[in-house]
Write a structure and sequence with these properties.
Helix content: 25-40%
Distance between the termini: 38 Å
Oligomer: single chain
Largest sheet: 8 strands, mixed
Structural class: alpha+beta
Number of helices: 10
Length: 328
């Protein structure tokens, strides 16, 4: 057996990582401290990720080593056995959502063959559009939002006024939001975190048809990994915030006019994604304490087989508490 290829069992190992991060982070829901919530998730993810059978390198992490002592870009993770893989992590996507007790915070991890994940470099932001399989061939980030709505509505066989678009609530999106509403679509504004809505857009029955707008490039890579598993489509274009960042990207060889598809952002054929809800949202139910147990809901995906699993788990509260004492 070729151990350089990620094994199908890896998916179920990864969900233990996101369950742990979500459970630890959930202790900070509504407490107003996003830094503590994020630290709890990072501690828990680090505790579990090194038990996974892989030789991983963090490509999308918490930042450079001097800024992030754990789960930093370039860090080796896993137990040192198994396949060589790129790893993208967001221990708590939606730190502010968690702190404020708002929907759609998740813990997420994506894994693909070594050398296949896009490294954002100085590109912190990316303009994105994401949809599910029913409209995968319809979108084009280089045409107007109105035309994209018309294309998606035709592909899905519904009216534009039946479409729901998720957009980050930012001043930079004022014109986009106005155009989407003028075209007749429903706009669902979110405070933070566009990985969960991107995955929701690619899943039937979530009430989300598209994700549009400028969000984080690292989050775009994780979203692309999930969309490859789900069969949807994603387009992205790097969005430098200023002339200095633009020049940095040009000097590093990035093509700023290039349209990046999900296959450009994650080139591998063996992609695994696991996500666990922290607070309830369109994609996943959040962590709940029911008497003496902690309940979690997760989604686990594999690109090669196209398998998508939803996992509801119940964890003894006493064991969670004992693990908490062992974390930093």
């Amino acid at each position: 057996m070729d151990r350089s290829i990620p094994d199908r069992n890896l998916a179920l190992e990864l969900v233990r990582v996101t369950e742990s991060a979500a459970t630890f982070a959930s202790r900070w829901i509504g407490r107003g401290d996003k830094i503590a919530a994020d630290q709890a998730a990072v501690d828990a993810m680090r505790l579990m990720i090194n038990t996974v059978s892989m030789r991983g390198v963090v490509v999308i992490g918490e930042g450079e080593k001097d800024e992030a002592p754990m789960l930093y870009n370039g860090e080796a993770v896993g137990d040192g056995t198994g396949p060589e893989v790129d790893v993208a992590v967001d221990p708590l996507e939606g730190t502010r959502l968690t702190a404020l007790g708002m929907p759609n915070a998740i813990a997420v991890i994506a894994v693909a063959e070594r050398g296949t994940m896009f490294f954002p470099g100085a590109a912190l932001y990316m303009d994105k559009i994401a949809v599910g399989p029913g409209a995968a061939d319809a979108i084009d980030i280089e045409v107007s939002p109105t035309e994209n709505l018309e294309r998606v509505s035709e592909a899905k066989g519904v009216g534009v006024n039946d479409l729901t678009v998720v957009v980050l609530e930012r001043e930079r999106h004022d014109d986009l939001i106005a155009e989407l509403r003028e075209a007749g679509a429903r706009v669902n504004l979110i405070r933070d975190g566009d990985v969960a809505p991107a995955i929701a857009a690619a899943q039937a029955g979530t009430g989300v048809d598209l994700l549009m707008g400028v969000g984080g490039t690292p989050e775009g890579v994780i979203s692309a990994a999930a969309i490859k598993c789900l069969g949807g489509a994603m387009h992205g274009k790097l969005w430098p915030r200023n002339q200095e960042e633009r020049q940095q990207l040009l000097d590093a060889g990035y093509e700023l006019d290039a349209v990046l598809t999900a296959d450009d952002l994650v080139q591998g054929d063996d992609v695994f994604v696991a996500a666990t809800g922290v607070t309830s949202g369109a994609l996943l139910r959040g962590v709940r304490v029911v008497r003496d147990r902690v309940e979690t809901e997760s989604i686990v995906m594999r690109s090669r087989s196209g398998t998508v699993r939803r996992i509801q788990a119940s964890h003894p509260l006493t064991k969670i508490q004992s693990l908490t004492k062992g974390a930093r």
